[in-house]
């Protein structure tokens, strides 16, 4: 039955407790231990039962408790301290950005992501991508970086996981109650809800704009579940990653185009747009369209203007992780939109195709982002290498090592993930600088932490993890209808003093959750060693349509029921942020076994490392980078499974790496953990914990990551955009006209002759001179960059490890040819060397060094 009227009821607080309302509605409490303790003081049980949601808690708490707290001087003093800290965190000018860039021009970065994992009560995230996005906002707030977030507000979010009696994953969806979450609906000046509209085939879809405040950073969220929409359109923001490909394109149109319009409607004008994965890439089209309208530009002119203000970060080397839409689906949703850009269907679809001339190729969101942005990056050094190979075809003729896809290694927001005990330990021994700095000096003070204090702190967290796991296992077995003997046994699983391994991540086949289970007999011997017992806690969700991922979970659960494993293996259902915190804070070992090189980065191991856990992983993603980084030989930071070998046969790789994993556990990991001195402390293990903290924490954090994005991308991009936008986009018009000339003439660019060069028996240290005669058509020498490309040759005759040397224009020949020279080029090493010449377009306002299709080789 529909109501005739609806009204909102808010929590009733005594005047003395009104500051609690502001505290509850700013999500900074999600990484402030003191703030969480404030809410726990009101009612610990209600804090837990509310799902760690202070807004719901304040609306449900007994009024007598509030009245008592309002008369409690100690509570009021605690509240005043938290309120002061919140005010300082939001308004204080003493933050990194203001100190490091006091004279920076106006900057506002808009960070678009399909999901944001900020806290467990705000269910608008699925996994690592969303948690990374949430940590990005948190570090931006801490550092004072001018940034806003944009996403969708999902009515049901991602699914809740539970297992049936056969161990098969089932999905349940629960509605989010937006009015009992730390969210506020935005309104227009006349008091009406702030909404935006987006054209869909034959109709207009409306979305309401909500605000979640994340410290200093506003996060704008779009909700299509409004009365103006049809029932089908109200479902667009129903589930994260739910539905078919048509639902996916509808969501991504709303995210990219609708999100761009929501910022405009809210009076927010970013200078840089950062696309976190390809889901939001349609915003680049909307940005171009709005610039066309604002300055009356052509598409080519607006594209040149928009490009420097767009940043794209890709997150997966797995092909299935990228969104592709069939041409007919794109026609259905974008025919009119392409007309508004004044470009043809062919040119529009070419923006999302590797081969622009292949009419059968689907439209890829990652390709769209890479074609329109001047700045693209992967999320670890290894992922950057993989991405350059993966997308090389977009830049034909560019050597794979120079494909313009860089890398910014991911990190984690430490204060969101470390335990309160570790937080206090760091404050005591590292000083307050550890919270903000990415400098390694603070982390070198880890050596000053007494070994016993570090170990006892970690032991308490392991004990809490075991207690938490027993409670969760008891509840899930009871809910599943398991036999009584299984339910009763849940209270005895795991040993609070045993070596504890954590494995928690999305259940995808390439992550190989069952690698450890390949030899059950050997695995059982390792787990049940009477002198050195080992135990493992699993958690993770499979995508609802990923049957192989669900089979991995079922296999783990079946093994955990075997009497040989029952006390040593546990699978925790419904992996979320709360479960993740217990695991990364309490495990001794964080296990990660992806099939190299399919893990772009991974961040769960970074969270565990920040809590003193040691990583045991294949050399993929961030761990490859961490393992190969220089460090003192005496310092152990964890263990590597294999040496990063490449295998043609995945089955062979699984077998070899499973054997290596068993060997490490038996011969190194367990012996090190159980080696105790007279003081009963595992001194070698504690030394490894300190080595891990010193060598990893200073770098693998989002404070370093956000600073890198700000200084490498946000600030330079804003500067370049401002330069091209000045004087009604005069710079963009000139650049587009120049590009049009270059594209039309590039077919006439060629290297006619080479002269001079090294003698056949040049010696190391000799210098050489190379001259080239070029035909440039109607282009001038100022329009091109000519380089000598020199390096050793591999067995196939290809230049490897090349060095580029700029060639200087010397003269114009009588026939109109242009003469270029590279003089004094050194011969740095012995062996067979080779060189060639390449020609690239050159313009002072060109932001991308390589333009797809514009490169000529001798």
Topology of this protein?
Blueprint: H1 19-24, H2 33-42, H3 44-49, H4 54-60, H5 63-70, H6 73-91, H7 96-100, E1 109-112, H8 128-143, E2 147-152, E3 160-163, E4 169-172, E5 184-185, E6 195-200, E7 203-214, E8 217-223, H9 231-234, H10 245-265, E9 272-276, H11 282-295, H12 299-306, E10 310-313, E11 324-325, H13 327-340, H14 345-350, E12 363-364, H15 365-372, E13 375-378, H16 381-390, E14 406-407, H17 414-417, H18 420-430, H19 440-444, H20 451-480, H21 484-489, E15 499-504, H22 520-527, E16 534-539, H23 547-561, E17 569-572, H24 577-586, E18 589-592, H25 604-610, E19 614-618, H26 621-628, E20 638-641, H27 650-674, H28 683-696, H29 702-745, E21 750-756, E22 767-775, E23 784-792, E24 803-806, E25 808-812, E26 818-826, E27 833-841, E28 856-857
Parallel strand pairs: 1-2, 1-9, 2-8, 9-10, 10-13, 13-14, 15-16, 15-18, 16-17, 18-19, 19-20
Antiparallel strand pairs: 3-4, 5-7, 6-7, 7-8, 11-12, 21-22, 22-26, 23-24, 23-27, 25-26, 27-28
Helix pairs in contact: 2-6, 8-29, 10-11, 11-12, 12-29, 20-24, 24-25
What's the CATH superfamily of the largest domain, by name? Glycogen Phosphorylase B
CATH class of the largest domain: Alpha Beta
Shape: globular
Number of strands: 28
Please count the helical segments: 29
What would you report as the Rg, rounded to the nearest angstrom? 29 Å
Low-confidence stretches: none
CATH topology of the largest domain: Rossmann fold
Distance between the termini: 76 Å
How many domains comprise the coordinates?
A: 4
Per CATH, which architecture of the largest domain?
3-Layer(aba) Sandwich
């Amino acid at each position: 039955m529909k109501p005739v009227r609806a009204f909102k009821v808010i929590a009733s607080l005594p005047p003395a407790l009104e500051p609690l309302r502001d505290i509850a509605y700013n999500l900074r409490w999600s990484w402030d231990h003191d703030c969480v303790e404030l809410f726990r003081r009101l009612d610990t049980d209600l804090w837990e039962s509310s799902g760690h949601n202070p807004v719901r808690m304040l609306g449900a708490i007994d009024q007598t408790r509030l009245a008592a707290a309002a008369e409690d001087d100690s509570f009021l003093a605690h509240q005043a301290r938290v309120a002061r800290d919140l005010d300082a965190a939001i308004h204080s000018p003493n933050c990194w950005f203001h100190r490091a860039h006091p004279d920076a021009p106006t900057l506002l970065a808009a960070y678009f992501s399909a999901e944001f994992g900020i806290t467990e009560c705000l269910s608008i995230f699925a996994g690592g991508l969303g948690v990374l996005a949430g940590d990005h906002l948190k570090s931006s707030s801490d550092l004072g970086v001018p940034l806003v977030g944009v996403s969708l507000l999902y009515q049901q979010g991602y699914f809740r996981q539970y297992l049936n009696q056969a161990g098969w994953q089932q999905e349940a969806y629960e509605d989010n109650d937006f009015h009992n979450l730390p969210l506020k609906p935005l309104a227009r000046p006349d008091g009406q809800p702030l909404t935006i509209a987006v054209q869909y085939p034959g109709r207009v879809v409306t979305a309401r704009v909500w605000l979640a405040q994340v410290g200093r950073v506003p996060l704008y969220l779009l909700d299509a579940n409004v009365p103006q929409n049809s029932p089908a359109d109200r479902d667009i923001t129903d589930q994260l990653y739910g539905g078919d490909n048509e639902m996916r394109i509808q969501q991504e149109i709303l995210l990219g185009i609708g999100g761009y319009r929501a910022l405009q409607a809210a009076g927010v004008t970013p200078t840089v747009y950062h696309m976190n994965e390809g889901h939001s890439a349609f915003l680049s089209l909307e940005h171009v369209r709005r610039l066309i309208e604002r300055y009356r530009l052509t598409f080519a002119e607006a594209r040149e203007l928009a490009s420097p203000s767009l940043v794209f970060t890709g997150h997966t080397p797995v092909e299935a992780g990228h969104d592709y839409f069939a041409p007919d689906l794109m026609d259905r949703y974008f025919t009119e939109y392409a007309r508004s850009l004044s470009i043809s269907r062919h040119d529009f679809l070419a923006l999302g195709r590797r081969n622009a001339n292949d009419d059968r190729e689907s439209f890829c969101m990652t390709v769209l982002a890479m074609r329109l942005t001047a700045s693209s990056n992967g999320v670890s050094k290894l992922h950057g290498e993989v991405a350059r190979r993966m997308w090389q075809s977009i830049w034909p003729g560019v050597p794979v090592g120079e494909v313009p896809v860089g890398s910014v290694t991911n990190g984690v927001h430490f204060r969101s993930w470390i335990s309160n005990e570790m937080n206090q330990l760091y404050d005591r021994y590292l000083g307050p600088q550890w919270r903000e700095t990415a400098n390694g000096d603070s982390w070198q003070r880890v050596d000053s932490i007494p070994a016993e204090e570090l170990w006892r702190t970690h032991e308490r967290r392991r004990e809490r993890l075991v207690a938490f796991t027993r409670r969760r296992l008891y509840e899930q077995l009871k809910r599943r209808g398991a036999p009584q003997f299984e339910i009763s046994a849940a209270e005895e699983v795991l040993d609070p003093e045993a070596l504890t391994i954590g494995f928690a991540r999305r259940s995808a086949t390439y992550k190989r959750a069952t690698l450890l289970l390949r030899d059950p007999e050997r695995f059982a011997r390792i787990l049940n060693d009477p002198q050195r017992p080992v135990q493992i806690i699993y958690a993770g969700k499979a995508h609802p349509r990923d049957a192989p991922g669900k089979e991995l979970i079922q296999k783990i659960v079946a093994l955990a029921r075997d009497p040989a494993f029952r006390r040593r293996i546990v699978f925790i259902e419904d992996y979320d942020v709360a479960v993740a915190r217990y695991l990364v804070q309490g495990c001794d070992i964080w296990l990660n076994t992806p099939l190299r090189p399919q893990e772009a980065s991974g961040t769960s191991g970074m969270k565990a490392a920040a809590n003193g856990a040691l990583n045991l992983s294949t050399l993929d993603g961030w761990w490859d980078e961490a393992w190969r980084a220089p460090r003192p030989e005496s310092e152990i930071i964890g263990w590597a499974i294999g040496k990063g070998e490449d295998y043609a046969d995945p089955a062979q790789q699984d077998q070899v790496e499973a054997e290596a994993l068993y060997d490490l556990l038996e011969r190194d990991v367990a012996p090190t953990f159980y080696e105790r001195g007279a003081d009963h402390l595992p001194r070698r293990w504690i030394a490894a914990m300190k080595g891990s903290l010193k060598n990893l924490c200073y770098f693998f954090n989002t404070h370093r990551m956000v600073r890198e994005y700000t200084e490498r991308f946000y600030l330079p991009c804003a500067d370049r955009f401002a330069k091209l936008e000045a004087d009604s986009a005069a710079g963009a018009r000139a650049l587009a006209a120049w590009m049009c000339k270059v594209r039309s003439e590039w077919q006439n660019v060629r290297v006619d002759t080479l002269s001079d060069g090294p003698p056949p028996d040049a010696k190391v240290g000799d210098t050489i001179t190379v001259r080239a005669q070029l035909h440039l058509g109607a282009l001038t020498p100022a329009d091109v960059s000519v380089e000598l490309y020199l390096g050793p040759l591999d067995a196939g005759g290809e230049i490897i490890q090349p060095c580029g040397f700029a060639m200087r224009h010397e003269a114009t020949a009588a026939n109109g040819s242009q003469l270029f020279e590279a003089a004094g080029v050194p011969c740095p090493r012995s062996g067979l060397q080779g060189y060639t010449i390449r020609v690239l377009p050159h313009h002072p306002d060109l932001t991308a060094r390589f333009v797809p299709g514009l490169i000529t080789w001798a």
